[in-house]
What does this fold into?
Amino acid sequence: MTLTKDRIKELYADKHYQSYFDVGLFFVLIFSFHLLYNLWNYTLDYWPVKGLVDKLFAWASTLLFGQSTWTLEHIIGMDFVTQKHTILFLNNEGTYSAVTVAPECTSLKQWMHWLFLMIIFPGPWKHKAWYIPLGLVIIEFTNVVRIVGICLFLRPYPNDFALAHDVIFKIMFYVVIFLMWMLWVERFLHSGRNDKKTTQRKSPSE
It folds into this structure.
């Protein structure tokens, strides 16, 4: 069967196929942004706004460092010292572990990921106008949790930085983005459509 534009719209209108289209578009957008960002970063070196991007990364790393150390001190009650953007603390082996909040640790890439995804993904703009900024705040909060979580993880497991940084908390980051996207799809994208269809089906018999 040839999939024409009208046929695709018909399938997408069917609740049984909506999730397949939505998840497919989600991954297409996620991987498209990843490729475009790597091209812009590694090949074009953030041309033509490298100076601005470098300043934004520096600002974001200072912000993240301050938020993370405040959380460690006032909420976790953890003893540590700082050196520039590095957090130093004693681990269970009696040596010092260090976590450096570098520009690459900031949420800027994930913010751009979220903006790219939500601007292109279908949905009512009256809700996007507040849901997108809320997502940016949640992403920043998640990054603070990530830095704090890495510090706490390294106290009992000081030799497993790569596991914490590259696996556990990196996965957590994208799980949060995926869950926010799922909430958008279920609560704002399809709820109005499906409610409208239910009302239309009931109308003739009323």
Residues 195-206 have pLDDT under 50 and may be disordered. Strands lie at 81-83, 86-90, 96-100. DSSP finds seven helices and three strands in the chain.
